[in-house]
Amino acid sequence: MEPTKQTIVLVDDDRNILTSVQMTLEAEGFIVRTYTDGESALHGLSSRPADLAVLDIKMPRMDGMELLQRLRARSQLPIIFLSSKDEEVDQLMGLRLGADDYITKPFSQRLLLERIRALLRRNEVSRSEAAGVSPTGTMVRGGLSLDETRHQCLWHGRDIQLTVTEFLLVKALAARPGLVKSRDQLIDAAYGENIYVDDRTIDSHIKRVRKKFRQVDEEFNQIETLYGIGYRYKEE
């Protein structure tokens, strides 16, 4: 029995990019659906789920930022977004809104393919564990509970919805309370080795994680910043 093909959604108003990337991904065995604006993509994803989405920022009818917010309000779908090199603010904002990764234009299709595969692998681990494959149990650190078999994060019994990347960052920090993790170590934990990610990407993910915890507990301060060094988890 052949393995089920994974579905990638591409959203960009540049039809040349859509066609080129679609051909590359289909040649690698993916099913690809394309949209030229955020509104049609949101409608399409509502009726036909996918395994991962790649979103451009600047699009008509609904831009990538709004689409990202709409998707994150109801789904933890793995998301990579595209931005121009001079759009650093947009890159950081996208990460704070919940994107798992970003790539700057113009980009290498090989790089995009590697990032897609890496993110899908991370997501597949969570799905496999949820299905009962290689369960690793639950990590408990004071009020924090991380159940890898269900990809579930609880803070004092209250559910915290984390993306794949966010979950892996929290897990890496909580695994060794009090131990400082450098940004490079956190990049390896969340993205895997040999994947280059700017340090500020980790900072943005951490800010979003803190915000999610503080939405259920205003006093949450377990993730500490050591300026110029990295982060550590402070157990209660």
Automatic annotation (TrEMBL):
Domain OmpR/PhoB-type residues, every copy: 136-235
Domain of life where this protein originates: Bacteria
Keyword DNA-binding carried by entry: yes
InterPro entries in the cross-refs: CheY-like_superfamily, OmpR/PhoB-type_DNA-bd, Sig_transdc_resp-reg_C-effctor, Sig_transdc_resp-reg_receiver, WalR-like, WH-like_DNA-bd_sf
GO cellular component: cytosol; protein-DNA complex
Localization, UniProt: Cytoplasm
Modified residues (4-aspartylphosphate): D56
This protein's UniProt keywords: Cytoplasm, DNA-binding, Phosphoprotein, Transcription, Transcription regulation, Two-component regulatory system
GO biological process: positive regulation of DNA-templated transcription
Official protein name in the record: DNA-binding response regulator
Organism: Komagataeibacter oboediens
The organism's taxonomic lineage, starting at the top: Bacteria, Pseudomonadati, Pseudomonadota, Alphaproteobacteria, Acetobacterales
